[in-house]
Amino acid sequence: MRLLTAIEARVLGVLIEKERTVPDTYPLSLNSLVAGCNQKTSRDPVMSLTDAQVQEALDELRSLSLVTESSGAKVMRFAHNTDRALKMPSQSVALLATLMLRGPQTAAELRINSERLHRFADTGSAEVFLNELAERMDTAQPFAPQALVRLLPKAPGAREARWVHLLCGEPDLPMAGPAAATSPSSGDDELRDQVRVLAARVQALEDELAALKQALGT
């Protein structure tokens, strides 16, 4: 088994997301999948993929047993097979998809951003599954012995370290800049946390609106 490309990871992440957020239109048609890949919200980085690029990624993911294809009334439809192919629980699949779609995040951000895929009781609950993904060493699994996520070194001045998925290989880490002259106060940290929470909830509302528009064909 090989590592995924960035486009393949985006396609897989969208299929996992849409299974939970728009179940009435899932499995997805190629057009719906391309639209999900090219969303401007809840995506990091933002991509602009063509039908041909997404179809090529689907063909490759099918060869890895990560995607299945079915015949709809008029068009072919596609679904992910991540939980069965990688033998992992739905909680882990939700966290992995959120990392594929939104890039590196702290455990607290992951808990908030994955809420529509799986609602974790608290940040500690999410960390349990993140640690399991980071410690996967079963040689019977497709991507083993490589772990599927990793905790990045804490950035200078950051309160928490961020997690990153490894389905596309090790991330390119930015060069550490000079440390800040003064450390942020706990009050500043709390304010930033509150801003992140509010931003994530606004993003979730925008996602729901986009899903409704897609379902209504507007």
From TrEMBL:
The keyword DNA-binding does not apply. Pfam families: DUF480. Signal peptide: none annotated. Residues 188-215 form a coiled coil. It comes from the Bacteria. The keyword Cell division does not apply. InterPro entries: DUF480, WH-like_DNA-bd_sf, WH_DNA-bd_sf. Keywords: Coiled coil. Belongs to the UPF0502 family. This is YceH family protein.
